[in-house]
Each structure stands twice: as C-alpha cells, then as structure tokens.
Write a structure and sequence with these properties.
Blueprint lengths: L14 E3 L6 E3 L3 E4 L4 H6 L11 E4 L4 E2 L2 E3 L8 E3 L1 E7 L15 E8 L2 E2 H10 L4 H4 L5 E2 L4 E2 H4 L6 E6 L2 E7 L7 H11 L7 E3 L7 E3 L4 E6 L3 E7 L1
Parallel strand pairs: 3-15, 5-11, 6-18
Antiparallel strand pairs: 1-2, 3-4, 7-10, 7-16, 8-9, 8-15, 9-12, 13-14, 13-17, 17-18
Pfam families: FAA_hydrolase
InterPro entries: Fumarylacetoacetase-like_C (IPR011234), Fumarylacetoacetase_C_sf (IPR036663)
Protein name: Fumarylpyruvate hydrolase
Length: about 230
C-alpha cells in the first residue's frame, strides 16, 4: 500500500536516550501520580492517609532531556518536583500487582515542573490542572536505565539541589504507593501501552525556581538529571 499523505506535517517522534544503547525510547503518553509521598502531601496541606492514587497527565511533547528549559509564561511561582519515572515496555489492561514489573522497560530521573500559583488557583476553582502542569518542556527526563541492567529499585536516595543548595532529600522507599501498585491501579483506568511514562510522585522540599537556576536531581542506582532555567 502507498504511504499515507497528510494535510499538515505529522509531529516528530518524541524519544529519550537509553543507557548503553544507540536505540531510543519513544514516548507515547505521560501519566503522573499526585501526592505519593506523605511528607510532600503534608507540605501541600493535605492528609497523607493512603487513599487510592490519583493521576494527571502531561503531553508527550512536554518531555525533554537535560539542558536548558525556558521559564514558562503566566506564572510567578515555578516549582521543581524531582521524581522516579517508570518507562512502560509492554502494554496491558487490568494488570495484576504481581505481574506489573513485567511491563516495565526501565527507570529514569524526572522533573515535574509546575506553575504552582496557577495550580493553587485551579484547585480553588475546582478546575483541571493542565495549564499548571502540561506546558512546553515541563517534563525534563534523564536517560532511561533498562530494568534488565539495574533491576527494579525499591529503595534509593532521591535528591534535588538548586544552585548547589539541597532542597529535596527523600527515598523512593517512602512512596505511599509502590511502582507495581501504581501500574496495577492505572491500568484499571487506561490500557497501558509501550512508550508510556509514569511519574511516581515527589518527596517534600519542592520550591521556587528563577531564571538562571540550575537544578540537579539524582536517584541512587537510577541516574541524574541537570536542568538550567533560562
């Protein structure tokens, strides 16, 4: 069959590098878990009880690698949130907790950049979060470490520093919902597909960013990510 033509140019494939490989990981969708660390839930004014996880989304086009990220418009309170990111390598629906890790391709370090002032206004109005969360280059992610190489980390120090000042210092063992539980719950709402990313939540210590700030996020055994706000 002939190749289809399009009335406008199709978007390029968004992808991330994979440690040790020339081939890249293509991004399909980006899911994010809210309030998955008790201390962060408390600093945001919420009860950290183990309620069912909730999710919001960013766009595949919001994903960028390390480097420079522009300060977004229409905010005066840009916040960093350092997170463990799960890369899905095999799709599925209604995935059992015991089978969930078989759907994981690998892991990476990510930053969920947030227009915090905008998010606060949206929460008060009971409106969706997209303008606070899903803006251009709001999801910097480092190179993906294949699970075949590092296994499936259940603990490891997670830090974020701004201009050398340590702000976030937690451990992925402190997640309220584990990676298998997140995958199982999310797959009840969506049929997961290869290429999906899941941001798993952030520990306490999120804070304001200004132009010129350098953010360095790191997760033990997983990797590091360096971003400059310009």
């Amino acid at each position: 069959m002939p190749e289809p033509s399009y009335v406008v140019a199709p978007p390029p494939v968004v992808s991330l590098p994979v440690v040790g490989l020339d081939a890249r990981f293509p991004i399909r969708r980006v899911f994010c878990v809210g309030r998955n660390y008790a201390a962060h839930a408390r600093e945001m004014g919420h009860d950290p009880d183990r309620e069912p996880p909730f999710f919001f989304q960013k766009n595949a086009g919001d994903v960028v690698g390390p480097g420079e990220v522009p300060y977004p418009p229409l905010t005066e309170e840009l916040h960093h949130e350092a997170e463990l990111v799960v890369a899905i390598g095999r799709g599925g629906k209604d995935i059992a907790i015991g089978a969930a890790l078989g759907h994981v391709y690998g892991y990476a370090v990510g930053l969920d950049l947030t227009r915090r002032d905008v998010q606060a206004d949206l929460k008060k109005a009971g409106r969706p979060w997209e303008t606070a969360k899903a803006f251009a280059q709001s999801a910097p992610v480092g190179a993906i470490q294949p699970a075949a190489a590092i296994g499936h980390p259940t603990k490891g120090r997670l830090t974020a520093s701004v201009d050398g000042d340590l702000r976030q210092d937690g451990d992925i063992a402190d997640m309220i919902w584990t990676v298998p539980e997140i995958i199982a719950h999310l797959s009840r709402w969506f049929t997961l597909e290869a290429g999906d990313l899941i941001f798993t939540g952030t520990p306490a210590g999120v804070g304001d960013l200004q132009r010129g700030n350098v953010i360095e996020a790191e997760i033990e055994t997983v990797g590091a990510l360096r971003v400059t706000i310009v």
